[in-house]
Design goal:
The protein is of the alpha/beta class. It has helices at about 15-25, 50-60, 80-95, 110-120; strands at about 5-10, 30, 45, 65-70, 105, 135, 145-150. α2 (about 50-60) packs parallel to α3 (about 80-95). It starts with 6 loop residues before the first strand and ends in a 5-residue tail after the last strand.
Amino acid sequence: MRPSDGVIMAVTELTDRQRSQLDSLGLPFVVIDPVGQLDPNVMSVGAANYTGGLAATEHLLSLGHRRIAMIGGPPHMLFSRARNDAYRSALLNAGIPIDPELITTGDCRTEDGYRQATRLLRCPNRRPRSSQRAISKPPACTTRPGTMACRSPMT
């Protein structure tokens, strides 16, 4: 049997026990898309959260949407911060002011995403003048927060 050259770990959190075991084996390792902040000495590779958030928001802008809401995940999660930063960047690049009332956070569960989207759609003074609405979510995971936009201006 050939010894391993290294380990690629797809875990949401690298525990102290896992880190200790890997260190004791002397194997190099990389963590894929960690949820929280890792020790700076741990190598990691993140998903395209920023790029995906930017592409999704820019796509909605290209369709003519101007009041785009964001349902993000918990602020302490790296993927959520990256998507939020991308959303804000796309709006600012398009010259659209960021409306804090259109940004909300959830807990990454489908039920909470539905609850947050419903709240945004029913928010007083935020009803669209037409019933055309666009809601998109990241294609890779249906349980992570998505983005919502209304086709026509809201009052």
